[in-house]
Amino acid sequence: MTTSREISRDGLWGNNVALVQLLGLCPLLAVTSTVVNGIGLGIATLITLVLSNTIVSLIRGFVRKEVRLPVFVLIIASVVTIIELSMQALFYDLYLVLGIFIPLIVTNCAIIGRAEGFASRNPVGPAALDGLMMGLGFLVVLALLGALREIIGFGTLFANAELMFGDGAQTLTIEFNKDYPGFLLAVLPPGAFFGLAVLIVAKNWLDLRPREKQEIIEPAPETA
Amino acid sequence: MTSVIVSSPYVAQGSTLKRLMIQVIIALLPGTIAYAWYFGPGVIINICLAVLLALAFEAGILKLRAKPVMPHLTDFSAVVAAWLFALCLPMHIPWWLVLVGIGFTMVAGKHLYGGLGFNPFNPAMVGYVVLLISFPREMTTWYLPNSVSGETLSLKEALAYTFGGADIQQWDALSSATPLDQVKTAVAQGITVAEIRLSPVFGEYAGKGWEWIAFWWFIGGLWLLATRTIRWHIPVALLAAVIAMSLLFYLINPETYTSPLFHLLSGAVVIGAFFIATDPVTAATTDTGRIYYGLLIGCLIYVIRVWGGYPDGIAFAVLLANMCVPLIDYYTQPRVYGEK
């Protein structure tokens, strides 16, 4: 039985969907040209993960092993449809920007991966928490990658924030330099690969740092 | 156990990386001088800036990787890469563009793959393509050779533009599409090649100025062949492919397809054939493989020029062919002696 602490740690850092499992790369690479797009898709994926994990966990006693995958896909597809229609109603402009990538959340391997790997074997509480934490981990990476690419590509941050937070949010947009010529590469697909690689390097570097320190300290007593 | 090989007399081969690179630099000189002669001091400024930045990046990265700095700086491989990169650039571009391009050349193109000898892609072309994709406006502002416009920017003006961000508008009259670009646009509008050739930027065979620069690259290339710095396979195959492709379509319809001579002497075909495609690290390594590699680049150049989105395609053609090198090498392994 995993504790909620472990589940949170796994989802946010140790087994992060984007940085460690490298799942869901298609939306990750395609929509993160700005922070707002990244957060928008991140939240949609987060809600999908929580709902699908909860439902899968609730029905885990009734689904035969042989048909579990089609059932999971049906559940995920229904959840994504609900989210897509809600976004169309509530955030129409953002819905237009994200376009095909909202329905494509269905194909995000991270979601079926969590349903199969965790939710179908655990009670509702931990399953929902797992969905939340995995979703948050994904959301943070999407937002970071979006920020990285937006700053380098356009020289702005939180551009088009009004798409998500209403007209009042237009003031959120930060423009660093009026004459910034823009760096198209960061906005184009190769920039997404470079950005993701930088984030993965940063994570691995942070993970490896403490270990190196320990190795240096250990041999000290031998000298006596 | 030691094995002693006895045979005499020995001749010192003396072929080191450094000597190789110096040969390349010598071979680049005539073309570079001709280029600067026709297009002004901006060419030289670009080369100097690129070389200095490349050495700085190389030193910095080698230090980060805890590798010896001086031997790598003095083998001139960074100088050659930077020189070739600078030759791809338009004559007058701001300094920070050179910085970004050289950064990608040295860091992403070379050292991220493991440094000299390990990079699958031609580093200079990586840097150039990054710039071409990211900054299309600056990277396609070319200038007329002095044989057409009658003047080029003075050294002072060129420096002011490169480093001071001087307003380029005042020299607008001097900027122009390259001959390749003009042909491409005009053909798309339904103008025949014969009519385009009446434009003052065209000389005897291709673009005025450009055709003679190509000639001097060719002389440099012959020097590389004569000193055995490169083998004949890649340049011959590449040029043959360009000639064959352009001749075929020229014979089909000379009104919309330009002559083989025009293709050969325009843009970067000659320098690409002798200097860029022959990079020993990223090219195919077997003799048969080199021929396929050269043919592939030549065909791709023609395809990109005529049907692609860019007026010239050496960089893309070389990078695409670089990707095919492992495959080419795999299928062209020479037969082991004694095997069927």
Note down, in words, how this protein is organized:
- The complex is a heterodimer of chains A (224) and B (340).
- Chain A has 224 residues and is an all-alpha fold.
- Helices cover 67% and strands 2% of the residues of chain A.
- Chain A has a two-stranded antiparallel ribbon.
- Chain B has two domains: 15-176, no CATH class; 179-328, no CATH class.
- Chain B is built from 17 helices and two strands.
- Chain B has helices at 17-39, 42-64, 70-73, 77-88, 95-110, 123-134, 136-139, 146-149, 155-164, 179-188, 193-196, 210-226, 233-252, 260-265, 269-276, 287-307, 314-331, and strands spanning 142-143, 175-176.
- The model of chain B has no long low-confidence stretch (mean pLDDT 87).
- The chains are: A mainly alpha (224), B mainly alpha (340).
Overall pLDDT confidence of chain B? 87
Gyration radius over CA of chain A:
20 Å
Overall pLDDT of chain A, averaged?
85
Question: Major sheet of chain B, described briefly?
Answer: 2 strands, antiparallel
Low-confidence segments of chain B, ≥5 residues, pLDDT <50? none
**Unreliable residue runs of chain A:** 220-224
Q: Estimate what percentage of residues of chain B fall within beta strands.
A: under 5%
Helix/strand structural class of chain B: mainly alpha
**Count of the separate structural domains of chain A:** 1
Strand order of the biggest β-sheet of chain A: 1-2
Summarize the structure.
The complex is a heterodimer of chains A (224) and B (340). Chain A has one domain (4-212). Chain A is built from 10 helices and 2 strands.
Topology overview:
The complex is a heterodimer of chains A (about 220) and B (about 350).
Chain A: H1 4-14, H2 25-31, H3 35-58, H4 68-90, H5 92-98, H6 109-117, H7 124-154, E1 156-157, H8 162-165, E2 174-175, H9 184-187, H10 189-217
Antiparallel strand pairs in A: 1-2
Chain B: H1 17-39, H2 42-64, H3 70-73, H4 77-88, H5 95-110, H6 123-134, H7 136-139, E1 142-143, H8 146-149, H9 155-164, E2 175-176, H10 179-188, H11 193-196, H12 210-226, H13 233-252, H14 260-265, H15 269-276, H16 287-307, H17 314-331
Antiparallel strand pairs in B: 1-2
Helix pairs in contact in B: 1-4, 1-12, 2-4, 2-5, 4-5, 4-6, 5-6, 6-17, 12-15, 13-15, 13-16, 16-17
